[in-house]
Amino acid sequence: MRHEEVDLEAIDRLKEVQRISGKISLYLSEIAKHEKKLNSALADQQLLRGQLEPIESRLGQGQIITRKLELDSKVAEDKIQKNRKQLDQATQATEFSGLKEQLARFDEEKAAVDESLIMVLEKIDELRTQEGDLNQRIAQAEEQLDEIRTEVTANTHDYRNELESLHKPLQQARVITDDELLEEFDRLFPSLGATVVVTLDGSTCGGCHLNVSSQVGEKVQAGKEVVICPSCARFLS
Ligand SMILES: [Zn+2]
């Protein structure tokens, strides 16, 4: 690119673009800093909700198993009742002892089902406790999240207003700035920030802090053209 045709005023106009752009990126980074806290609180909240899902699915399974075991227990109980009636009516010794054996088997069957049922109900209780604790933590996290959200909104309010007020001045400063300089500025600004245009301190570049030749220094002094640091390619003023 050719800078020779651009005078000192051009670099001053670019400095104004840089000043406003620098403020904008400062406010944006301040807002991002505050929002980081909010985002991390949101992530924590999501994490807690994620922990709730497997508990609820296990509770659902537990209820299905409970219903099945309750049914099995009732079937076993019916068999026992029927068997007892048959025993009451039994008149022959062989029939009696056969029914007795059968009753013992049914009793065992029912005891096993009931034992399983108790275990499942205990597990459900345990899961319900976990669910309750987790819901409490989620509610607390929700409260915290609201607080943080209010805080972030309040703390970033001024920055947002500042940003809003800088929009127009930036547009105005850019409109009167040389296109070639702007293009170069826009290319460098994301990595360099508000040090695309730097002052020359003696013979030291204000950006990379390396010394420039006396020839470069004189050009900057003369102020008749846009001078670039040979080491870091920043604009010198
Ligand atoms: Zn430099």
Text of the CATH class of the domain at 31-171: Mainly Alpha
How much strand content do the residues show? Answer: under 5%
Shape: rod-shaped
Radius of gyration: 40 Å
Distance between the termini: 18 Å
Helix/sheet category: mainly alpha
Order of helices and strands: HHHEEEHEE
CATH architecture of the domain at 31-171: Orthogonal Bundle
Small-molecule components bound: zinc ion
Helical region count? 4
Q: Strand count, sense and closure of the main sheet?
A: 3 strands, mixed
Proportion in helices? over 70%
List the uncertain runs.
1-6
Q: What is the strand tally? A: 5
Instruction: Assign the CATH topology of the domain at 31-171.
Output: Helix Hairpins
Q: Order of strands in the sheet with the most strands?
A: 1-5-4
Q: What does the average pLDDT come to?
A: 93
Characterization of this structure:
The protein has 237 residues and is mainly alpha-helical. The chain has a domain of 141 residues: Helix Hairpins, CATH 1.10.287.1490. The chain is 79% helix and 4% strand. It is built from 4 helices and 5 strands. The protein has a 3-stranded mixed beta sheet. The protein has a two-stranded antiparallel ribbon with strand order 2-3. It is rod-shaped.
Topology of helices and strands:
Blueprint (H helix, E strand, L loop, with lengths): L7 H82 L3 H83 L3 H14 L4 E2 L1 E2 L2 E2 L8 H9 L4 E2 L6 E2 L1
Parallel strand pairs: 1-5
Antiparallel strand pairs: 2-3, 4-5
Helix pairs in contact: 1-2, 1-3
The site of zinc ion (ZN) has 8 residues, from loops.
